[in-house]
Design a protein that fits this description.
Phytanoyl-CoA dioxygenase family protein, alpha+beta, about 25% helix, about 25% strand, Phytyl_CoA_dOase-like, six-stranded mixed sheet, Jelly Rolls, 7 helices, four-stranded antiparallel sheet
């Protein structure tokens, strides 16, 4: 089995040439302990411009990045539906992003194991290019026949993580998670970054280029407003025109 491309976060953590090479070759990096216990607890009780994310995304993508979007992934216990194999660029390609200069940072808020549906990735699949996607069971999924062949070539990695660990992966890296049939929930927080030179060609439900105002790594612990949602906007997919248009594009391409 292929060894995980994993690194441990410290106060003087810097993205090294070896990390950049691992990201290019394998399509991911696992950074252990990016957040400590206190920071993880603040995540759960209630993040995106933290310097801990920005500096690494900047180096891995090779230039200025901006925050594209964020979301919580709240997979509770006994959730029997899987999240099928896909690439994030499988979605974002149809959102006016001309280049795959994008990445996701997947932060574990709970312990993530095979038992409770940890993220699974195909190491090196980012080098296979964008795969055709289509609607299936309410999801946009990668073409199964091609994924099956890639699975024979690319090592299958189970990204088992502790709270505070962060997985950085390329937008063309194939990933999925299985059903969570255990009694343990599996919560995570996801931040997605786009390169500044890859500003989408049209407005949609994710952000256009907006410069990041970086904050220090201590900002999460210093935050005291954990529950006030005043001024925050939430999108329901069924009521958002650009999301509906995205699904319509996929449906039109598969009929």
């Amino acid at each position: 089995m292929e060894k995980l491309a994993e690194y441990n976060f410290t106060d003087n953590f810097e993205t090294t040439d070896q990390m950049v090479q691992d990201f290019k070759d394998k399509g991911y990096l696992l950074v252990r302990n990016l957040f400590d216990k206190d920071e993880v607890e603040k995540f759960i009780k209630a993040m995106t411009d933290s310097d801990a994310f920005y500096k690494n995304a900047y180096v891995l993508l090779g230039g200025e990045v901006y925050h594209y979007h964020s979301k919580y992934m709240l997979k509770d216990a006994k959730i029997t539906a899987p999240h099928y194999w896909h690439q994030d660029y499988g979605y974002w390609y149809n959102c006016g992003n001309l280049y795959p200069d994008m990445m996701t940072v997947w932060v574990a808020l709970d312990k993530c194991t095979k038992e409770n549906s940890c993220l699974e990735i195909l190491s090196g699949s980012n080098n296979c290019g964008r795969i055709e996607h289509h609607p299936h069971d309410g999801q946009i999924v990668a073409q199964k026949s091609r994924v099956d062949v890639i699975r024979e070539k690319c090592p299958h990695i189970y990204a088992e993580m502790n709270p505070g660990d962060a997985l950085f992966f390329h937008c063309n890296t194939l990933h999925h998670s299985s059903a969570n049939r255990s009694n343990l929930r599996r919560w995570a927080y996801i931040m997605c970054y786009n390169k500044a030179t890859n500003n989408p060609t049209f407005a949609h439900h994710h952000a256009q280029y907006t410069p990041i105002e970086k904050v220090p790594n201590s900002a999460i612990k210093e935050c005291t407003n954990l529950t006030d949602l005043s001024g925050k906007e939430f999108i329901h997919p069924s009521q958002n025109a650009s999301i509906a248009e995205l699904f319509a594009k996929y449906s039109a391409n598969t009929t």
